Amino acid sequence: MTARRALVFLIDGFDPEYIRSADLPNLMGLARAGAFTLDGRGVMPSLTNVNHISLLTGTFPDRHGLCTNFYYDRASAKEVFMDEVKFVRESLLFERAKAAGWSTALVTAKEKLTRLLRRDLDLCVHMGSVPPDIAAVVGPPPDIFSLEINLWVLRTAREVAARYAPSFLYVATTDYPEHKLAPETPEMKAHLREMDALIGEIVQGYDLRDSVVALTADHGMNAKTRSVSPVRVLAEAGFRARGVPLIKDGLFAHHRDLGGSLYLFLERPEVTAEAVRALRAAPGLDVVIPRHEAGTYHLPAERVGDLVCFGKREWALGIWDEWPAVRDEAGLRSHGSVHEQTIPLLLAGAGVKAGGQIQSGRIVDLAPTFCRLLGFGDGAFQGRVLEEVLG
């Protein structure tokens, strides 16, 4: 039967190692009731904004237009946060749901996500905007740089689901805990158990015979023990460039604007080939490609730098122009590179086979699969329907 309700969890920074390291009975029970993989793939760069939009549109950045958290517009010489829905070129699942007569809701910690996703949302709840009846139950939001913030998000989502019963509910956490704590730490394991219990409470309000539940992440997370400034590398080689840290999002404390990806805008684009050679000879860089090769990673050439850089697994990329180009880092966990592209994918409920195994699943496959299960019709997706797990 066609599902009548849908629930989507996007757990920010939920690297598969967090699932492997913790006892999560509710999540794993949901996985057994449906289809699951710990080897899903997000899109590049492995950042929050980019992957939310890929999930909700079923397209890659070269189609939907989001290619970073932070953007430099060379034409106007202005740097802006790419966190407004005006940057999104494709229809979101919220719009498809509304066209089908469904009610829609978003619950998140981050106000930026409400700006990025706000199309055809009937209810939009974040730290600064909570309905009074919900606030009376869950209390005021804790500091966004705390472990408690995601528990507050999940409690709020539980109340929204119970009191407002939106047809399509999208729940998005923040990744401060994952930036600060490795999977094997006792504090993180305890935190994940609390999250798992709340996820279980939310799912209990849904009948899997007529509802679809999905859970995934926007990116993984890795310890970064060293960092490199491509701007400084180029300066030492005699080239001037502006660097744009793609992870930059206004929440500096947990990642310090150090991530696994960076765009470079050369003062003289005609030296692109020489700049590529200089960077490829430097430590810490996995990938350095010119703008015209951005399509290799499904990136829109008109919205990236002259050069696209991705770091090695344990390296972060940053912006500084003083000596030295390379430095050691302590206590840094971050993302943005190809090494944080692996994510869990879980799908359960009406029309999904119990015990199914998602094969080569990607975050862009969720929207077309949802549209099939929810009766929203087909679209011009770049993702595929996960036929192997549908009943």
* Second CATH tier, the architecture of the largest domain: 3-Layer(aba) Sandwich
Percentage of residues in strands: 15-25%
Q: Give a short account of the largest sheet.
A: 8 strands, mixed
Structural domain count: 2
Rounded to an integer in angstroms, the radius of gyration calculated over CA atoms is 21 Å
The CATH class of the largest domain is Alpha Beta
Question: What is the name of the CATH superfamily of the largest domain?
Answer: Alkaline Phosphatase, subunit A
Description:
- By secondary structure, the protein is an alpha/beta fold.
- The protein has 2 domains: 5-74 and 84-220 and 341-389, Alkaline Phosphatase, subunit A (3-Layer(aba) Sandwich); 222-334, Gyrase A, domain 2 (2-Layer Sandwich), CATH 3.30.1360.110.
- Helices cover 31% and strands 22% of the residues.
- The protein contains 14 helices and 19 strands.
- The chain has helices at 16-21, 25-33, 48-57, 61-64, 93-99, 111-117, 132-138, 148-164, 176-180, 186-204, 230-236, 252-255, 272-280, 366-374; strands at 5-10, 35-41, 70-73, 78-81, 104-108, 123-125, 168-172, 211-216, 222-223, 226-228, 241-245, 261-266, 285-290, 307-311, 315-317, 326-328, 333-334, 342-349, 356-357.
- The strands form 5 sheets. Strands 6-5-7-1-8-18-2-19 form an 8-stranded mixed beta sheet, sandwiched between helices.
- The longest helix is centred in the middle third of the chain and has 19 residues, at 186-204.
